[in-house]
Design brief:
Bound molecules: cytidine-5'-triphosphate
Helix content: 25-40%
Number of helices: 14
Radius of gyration: 24 Å
CATH superfamily of the largest domain: CoaB-like
CATH class of the largest domain: Alpha Beta
Number of domains: 2
CATH architecture of the largest domain: 3-Layer(aba) Sandwich
Strand order of the largest sheet: 12-11-8-13-16-17-19-20
CATH topology of the largest domain: Rossmann fold
């Protein structure tokens, strides 16, 4: 972030006090920070504290910048490499969506052609309100990077999503924005999540995959500039920025979606695909009819099909979910499925729902044991390794 110029718009919410910590953290990373304080923000932090921490004057009045032909606000927005809105209140995001420019912050946001990162923080009901949901979707569509808020207890006493993410997570998202984009021009297909195999119109076979690791990998690849097609099983996670998502339910639908997404430079198949489906009953099975007997059918092996296909991407990466002999099984799977790499993990603990993962990277050259890492960190490392492969 060294030498990067960040315009920080501080909105009016209790989380505004964390903007002070953010200013310090960004300056520690080598960025210069020019603060813009809204009238609401000034109820929570003072211009003096912001100015002292940023070592910069604080801008807050649209009309006091009228030097140089009345274009001060345009210059201010254009002189930055990045605009960060933190906290981004429901009101600020609504104004951004509608193109309202009734104070300095909103005028800057309307006048700018600089990338914008919004870090929302608000009450859970405001965050989940249909108006905010629609505004966030629209802003993302227009290229604003809206960071997901954290989940948990709120200053107002309620509980749920809407908390400002921790400052290191905000700094990491900003750092990612400035990171080089070595996968620009590359197309990567990622599968993630479980599949559901219907038994009858109301029941299905499933597995415990949360989709977190696959979604994190898709996001990390997109952050490195790749065009990512994310083929997702039934999972309610937010689509990472920069990914085109295709939702599927069954293994067969996933196989069709992956094939349709080709050609690709790389494929990372993380999904926990059901190995077997059931010949589903068209009608709901009734208890009175006695214990059901299922006729199972083998599902296509998407990884093996892709690994041996003439349309094979240059790099095919599979996962191996094991509960014993993790590395030995992964080594065998790599060869059997025609994959270049296998990321092996022991799923006997709470890996499938949890946030951490201990993996081994199996390649033709051998086995690398990675330490236990957050799934987001496993994703970043794997994306970096993939980028090296295409360097
Ligand atoms: N996979 C796939 N299609 C399937 C089954 C698995 O594409 N029908 C992929 C997974 O996405 C993963 C890899 O194959 O990348 C290994 O999955 P895993 O469940 O560990 O292995 P299986 O082949 O299902 O073997 P087993 O369950 O017997 O260990």
């Amino acid at each position: 972030m060294h030498g990067k110029r960040i315009l920080l718009i501080v909105g009016g919410g209790i989380a505004a006090f964390k903007a002070l910590e953010l200013v310090r953290a960004l300056r520690r990373e080598g960025a210069t920070v020019t603060p813009v304080l809204t009238a609401g923000g000034a109820h929570f932090v003072t211009p003096l504290s912001l100015s002292a921490l940023a070592a910069s004057p604080v801008h807050s009045d649209l009309w006091s910048l009228d030097e140089g032909g009345g274009m001060g606000h345009i210059e201010l927005s254009r002189s930055a490499d990045l605009i960060v809105v933190c906290p981004a209140t429901a009101d600020l995001m609504a104004k951004m969506t509608a193109g309202i420019a009734d104070d300095l912050a909103t005028t800057l946001l309307l006048a700018t052609d600089t990338p914008v990162i919004a870090v929302p923080a608000m009450n859970v009901r405001m965050w989940t309100h249909a108006a905010t949901v629609a505004n966030v979707a629209m802003l993302r569509e227009r290229g604003v990077m809206v960071i997901e808020p954290d989940d948990g207890p709120m200053a107002c006493g309620e509980f749920g999503p809407g908390r400002l993410p921790e400052v290191p997570a905000i700094v990491a998202a900003i750092a990612l924005h400035f990171a080089p984009k070595p996968l620009t021009g590359r197309h990567v297909v990622v599968t993630a999540g479980p599949t559901h195999e219907p038994i009858d119109p109301v029941r299905y076979l499933a597995n415990r995959s949360s989709g977190k690791q696959g979604f994190a990998i898709a996001g990390a690849l997109a952050a490195l500039g790749a065009r990512v097609t994310l083929v997702a099983g039934p999972i309610a996670l937010v689509t990472p920025p920069g990914c085109t998502r295709i939702d599927v339910e069954t293994a067969r639908q996933m196989a069709v979606a992956v094939e349709a997404a080709l050609p690709a430079d790389a494929a990372v198949l993380v999904a926990a695909v059901a190995d077997w489906g059931v010949i589903a009953s068209p009608d709901k099975l009734k208890k009175a009819e006695g214990m059901p007997r299922f006729d199972m059918v083998e599902n296509p092996d998407i990884l093996a099909t892709l690994g041996h296909s003439p349309d094979r991407p240059r790099l095919v990466v599979g996962f191996a979910a094991e509960t014993s002999e993790t590395v030995a099984n992964a080594v065998a799977k790599r060869v059997a499925k025609g994959a270049d790499w296998i990321v092996a993990n022991d799923v006997s603990g709470d890996v499938m729902g949890g946030d951490a993962n201990t993996v081994h990277l199996v390649t033709a050259d051998g086995v690398e044991d990675w330490p236990t890492l957050a799934k987001a960190e496993v994703a970043r490392r794997l994306a970096d390794r993939i980028a090296q492969e295409f360097a």
